[in-house]
Amino acid sequence: MSSDVPQLARLSVSLPAELLAQLDAMVGERGLPSRSQMIAELIRHELAEHQEGRKGAVLAGALTLIYRAESGRVRGALAQAQQAFLKEVISSQHVFLEDDQSLEVLLVQGPSERLQALCDELRKIRGVQQIKLVTTTALLPPLHAHGEAEPKSARSA
């Protein structure tokens, strides 16, 4: 009998009192049921960042951009930069913000070096004010390849 419930391991950690108080405050502010849940989230975040630096690691994530939308020049430059990363950019969503700013979120997946190169290209565009890449080692399911036959179950539906 297989169980979908992950096995838990216990860990004892010693922290300075002030750091523990700050952790407890964060747990309370976020409404989490336990320190363990918060610590697990923090560890997952650090592990994903650690993977970002590993050569060849394939990651999925979201790239968030804030930029000045004073003209179509910035959006055009962003689109052109993304065009060079078609395999990595899965989708994008754009919204206008106040004060002539825009927010764009890209869903991305690919080798960590390519994702970092995409960030570097976008960062070079004049008008981009903020850029942040958040990744995970969990990947999107494989996407269709051009010319691939459809599975029988999908054709008969």
Short structural summary:
By secondary structure, the protein is an alpha+beta fold. The protein has helices at 17-30, 35-52, 72-83, 112-123, 152-155; strands at 58-68, 89-96, 101-111, 128-136. The relative contact order is 0.17.
For the CA atoms, what is the radius of gyration?
Answer: 21 Å
**Biggest pleated sheet:** 4 strands, antiparallel
For the largest beta sheet, what order do the strands appear in spatially? Answer: 2-3-1-4
Which percent range fits the helix content? 25-40%
- Count the E strands: 4
Features of this protein?
25% strand, 4 strands, 157 residues, alpha+beta, Alpha-Beta Plaits, 38% helix
Describe this structure in words.
It is a single chain. The chain is an alpha+beta fold. It folds into 2 domains: 17-52; 58-136, Alpha-Beta Plaits, CATH 3.30.70.1150. The protein has 5 helices and 4 strands, in the order H-H-E-H-E-E-H-E-H. The longest helix is centred in the first third of the chain and has 18 residues, at 35-52. The chain is globular and about 50 Å long.
